[in-house]
Amino acid sequence: MALSALLEERNVTRSGRRAGLSQPAMSAALARLRHHFYDDLLAHVGGHYDVCGGSSIRRPRPGSSR
């Protein structure tokens, strides 16, 4: 759920709200996901995160259920 929210929102605070977590808790979840997948997953770009170029995780297509 945290990964899905992060990939869709691309913002730690908003994705945390969506998942029912605080911003620090969502940041910690992102750190655990990065460690689990051995992948940066998302890179901070301006005021949001974007999927890293070499990441094996891809952002869901708009309008897709998953």
Structure report:
It is a single chain. The mean pLDDT is 83. The protein is built from 3 helices and 2 strands. Strands 1-2 form a two-stranded antiparallel sheet. The radius of gyration is 11 Å and the shape is globular. With 66 residues, the chain is an alpha+beta fold. It has one domain: Winged helix-like DNA-binding domain superfamily/Winged helix DNA-binding domain (Arc Repressor Mutant, subunit A, Orthogonal Bundle), CATH 1.10.10.10. The N and C termini lie close together (11 Å). Helix 1 packs across helix 2 and helix 2 packs across helix 3.
Overview in brief:
InterPro entries: LysR-type_TF, LysR_HTH_N, WH-like_DNA-bd_sf, WH_DNA-bd_sf. With 66 residues, the chain is of the alpha+beta class. The chain is 47% helix and 12% strand.
Quick tags:
LysR family transcriptional regulator; 47% helix; single chain; 66 residues; LysR_HTH_N; DNA-binding; 12% strand; transcription regulation; Arc Repressor Mutant, subunit A; two-stranded antiparallel sheet; transcription; alpha+beta
- Report the CATH architecture: Orthogonal Bundle
State the strand order across the main sheet: 1-2
CATH topology value = Arc Repressor Mutant, subunit A
The count of β-strands is: 2
Total of domains: 1
Distance between the termini: 11 Å
Overall 3D geometry? globular
Sheet of most strands: 2 strands, antiparallel
What is the assigned CATH homologous superfamily?
Winged helix-like DNA-binding domain superfamily/Winged helix DNA-binding domain
**Uncertain residue ranges:** none
H-E order = HHHEE
Helix content: 40-55%
CATH class: Mainly Alpha
Q: What do the pLDDT scores average to?
A: 83
Structural class: alpha+beta
